[in-house]
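User: Design a sequence. Structure:
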């Protein structure tokens, strides 16, 4: 049965359970009702869920936004550290000035220029929420909905949601299923599926914010990053791709060799100026439909934690925490200070509905959108 816990004590119980438990809990034991959350318009209850593997690696989720709340992995000393930033309560997620911490993103991850595009000869008009553009689904993004949750087993949680026709301006009733699973190779898998009853666009991802030295441990600028991409999509001043694929060679965007995030982030470069740092989509080497490719490797400079990113997607959005403003307080008490977390979002390219040369994001009735990505964790001693 689900256990109700006193408001404010829930996260402490979850964190202690994640750090100290050596036994495998049943799925019933790993669901915890959140009594601190405000009523949602959907009237669905919000809860926290734990999945784990035999190595004591654990992930905490909430069905509010289909979010990763915490992810405990061993560092070079064998100590479990939480490498995902997040909050103690659902109410804090609702009030956060940064709405995307850990969330499942949709119906369209990343930006769409001026919130409009042509589809089947008709203009689709979306809600605007990021300057002149639509970001991460606009004002009706998946980060703000309460998903239906099913704890499949001790290492698997499944979220489902029906995005209704014209929600956020997008056509079609979109049935979405996202399955997060944690295997004994310390891989956190993200499997996405969607179907529609009208032609629409779909681009799903997860927006976990990582600090591989541990949440609240300070800057991520000394993390080593390697991104397996020869090209990227440069952007205009509103962070919309120009439509070109530019070589990374000779630019601050060349991460083919391990390089710290901070090594060139302040270089005199128009793209870095427009993004206030890295907030760009990389065109992955060897990407092909249905093929898993190695997208990136990130290493925490203090912890030795290694995160390898694998995906079936053609792109990877690398975000260096440029808009973090110290306005929110994380689970451990630290503020979300400037560049204290990063994101590696596997995806199709931004603004693909307006760029015919980009891989298509169009989904038609009778088709199934299906894509997988995973984060693999290890240690460099």
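Assistant: Done.
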């Amino acid at each position: 049965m689900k256990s109700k816990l006193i408001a404010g004590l829930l996260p402490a119980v979850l964190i202690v359970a994640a750090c100290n438990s050596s036994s495998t809990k049943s799925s019933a034991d790993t669901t915890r009702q959140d009594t601190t959350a405000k009523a949602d318009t959907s009237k669905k209850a919000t809860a926290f869920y734990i999945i784990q593997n035999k190595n004591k690696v654990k992930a905490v989720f909430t069905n509010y936004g289909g979010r990763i709340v915490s992810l405990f992995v061993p560092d070079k000393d064998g100590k479990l550290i939480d490498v995902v930033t997040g909050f103690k309560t659902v109410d804090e997620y609702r009030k956060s000035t940064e709405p995307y911490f850990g969330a499942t993103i949709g119906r369209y991850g990343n930006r769409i220029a001026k919130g409009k595009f042509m589809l089947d000869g008709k203009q689709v008009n979306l809600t605007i929420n990021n300057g002149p553009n639509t970001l991460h689904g606009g004002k009706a993004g998946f980060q703000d909905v309460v998903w239906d949750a099913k704890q499949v087993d001790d290492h698997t949680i499944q979220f489902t949601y029906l995005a209704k026709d014209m929600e956020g301006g997008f056509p079609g009733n979109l049935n979405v299923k996202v399955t997060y699973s944690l295997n004994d190779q310390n891989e956190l898998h993200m499997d996405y599926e969607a179907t529609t009853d009208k032609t629409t666009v779909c681009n799903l991802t997860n927006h976990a914010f990582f600090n591989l030295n541990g949440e609240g441990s300070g800057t991520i600028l000394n993390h080593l990053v390697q991104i397996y991409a020869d090209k990227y999509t440069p952007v205009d001043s509103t962070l919309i791709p120009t439509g070109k694929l530019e070589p990374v060679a000779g630019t601050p965007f060349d991460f083919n060799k391990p390089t710290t995030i901070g090594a060139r982030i302040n270089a005199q470069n128009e793209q870095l100026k427009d993004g206030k740092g890295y907030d760009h989509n990389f065109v992955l080497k060897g990407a092909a439909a249905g093929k898993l490719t190695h997208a990136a490797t990130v290493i925490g400079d203090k912890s030795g934690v290694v995160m390898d990113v694998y995906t079936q997607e053609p792109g990877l959005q690398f975000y260096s925490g440029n808009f973090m403003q110290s306005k929110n307080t994380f689970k451990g008490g630290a503020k979300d200070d400037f560049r204290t977390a990063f994101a590696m979002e596997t995806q199709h390219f931004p603004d693909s509905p307006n760029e015919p040369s980009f891989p298509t994001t169009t989904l038609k009735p009778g088709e199934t959108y299906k894509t997988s990505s995973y984060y693999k964790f290890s240690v460099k001693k």
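The radius of gyration is 20 Å. The longest strand covers residues 369-379.
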